[in-house]
Amino acid sequence: MHSPTNNSVISNGINCSNTIYYGVYVPIDAKDYSEGPYVFQDKVEALKLAKRNKKARFKAFQFYHEAAEFAMNGSECPNNNHTITGLFTSKLSETTQTIGEKSSPFKGPKPQELVELRKAIESGNYKFVKETIWQNPRYLVSNGDTPSILQEGPRYNALHVAAKSKNAEIAELILSTISNTEFIKLLYGDDNQQNAEDRTAVLLDLYLNTPNKGLNETPLHFAAKHGAAEVVELLVSYPQCDKSTRNKFHKSAAEIICERADGNNIQAVKNKIQLLLQDSYYVPVLRAEDNSLPPTVGEPFSPTTPPVLNKDPLSPRLEIHAYAGPMDKKEAQEFRRVWKTPPRTLNFNSPSRKPNENVSVTSLRYKDPDKGLERIGKRLAKDYDVSWKEYWSFLGKFS
């Protein structure tokens, strides 16, 4: 039985500490009841168990008895203030009623409303999707704190649908929204920042790595299989994305690239996705938050080993404002070397400049301190045939 550790204080069912309990519900056909209810204080361990069973559900609680009830029955206290775990039954007093997590003020959408959202994602109706999910967060988050299902049967969530539709813009909207603590605070009417951060972490992992029913494929499988290179690039940019997950046929995303792709130039798309699913590296532009330091070209990094930018709390805070990639490690190191000491001249396309007229790189860096380094990097990215992303504050994202 996964019971509270000795350093928590339980008195008459009341949690007298700040401990959070994570209950994992596993359906009866997959559960060993000799182990008791699956209740953890370590969120990572709870997630590991939940991910091993595709039918499992995961939820955090303030009280142990609530987590135990959820772990055994898939719901909290369904029988009039009795905790029924299959191993014990106890009458709860008035002071120990289920008061753990706040319930959301939003009602779950009707099935036809979820179908409408799915069709909007498939058709690329970005404005409708954004307005809908912010008007009612339950379109993305179910009552069980898991991704809402937009298509029964195969059990597609919104990210499955966006990946299958090859729509990177809406896939990015979905991931950035469920990663936004303000969205989670809106969902629960709870201003606690730590609670919101914990929930976003769980939701992000579930959206990225939950397989569908039947083929057991994650959104990454969908994107790779349909040749959606931009979606693949987005998904693997998240360190939480598990590239090793295998589908019903024991194949990873890397083993089914472009199996369902159509259109021209499929081989080029396949090559790009293969590179993305390897250990990819990016070369960033680093700028001080207060602009007290000149911008610099940072060391190559990969999503699995993100850069440590602010080791010294007394130094100006550095942020990534643009990046080029993906590339393999050797290519990224070469790109950085050329970017730091580029040729004295580079050809920049401009309506006011003749095609063969060159611009001094040194001059550009000093004359355009806000975007000069980015302009050089963007031009080099074009020469190296790699993607280029810049952060635009008015959009609140990289584009």
Distance between the termini: 48 Å
- Please give the count of helices: 14
Backbone structural class = alpha+beta
Largest sheet: 5 strands, antiparallel
Question: Mind telling me the C-alpha Rg?
Answer: 25 Å
Q: Give the name of the CATH superfamily of the largest domain.
A: Ankyrin repeat-containing domain
What share of residues are in beta strands?
5-15%
CATH architecture of the largest domain: Alpha Horseshoe
> Roughly what is the average pLDDT, rounded to an integer?
79
How does this structure look, described?
This protein has 399 residues and is α+β, with helices and mostly antiparallel strands. The protein folds into three domains: 10-96, no CATH class; 111-277, Ankyrin repeat-containing domain (Serine Threonine Protein Phosphatase 5, Tetratricopeptide repeat, Alpha Horseshoe); 281-398, no CATH class. Helices cover 36% and strands 13% of the residues. It contains 14 helices and 14 strands. The protein has helices at 43-52, 64-73, 111-123, 126-135, 158-164, 168-178, 181-188, 193-209, 219-225, 229-236, 266-277, 329-340, 361-367, 372-384, and strands spanning 10-11, 14-15, 21-25, 39-40, 57-61, 82-84, 89-91, 281-288, 296-297, 318-327, 345-346, 359-360, 388-392, 397-398. The protein has a five-stranded antiparallel beta sheet. Strands 4-3-5 form a three-stranded antiparallel beta sheet, with helices on both faces. Strand 1 and strand 2 form a beta hairpin.
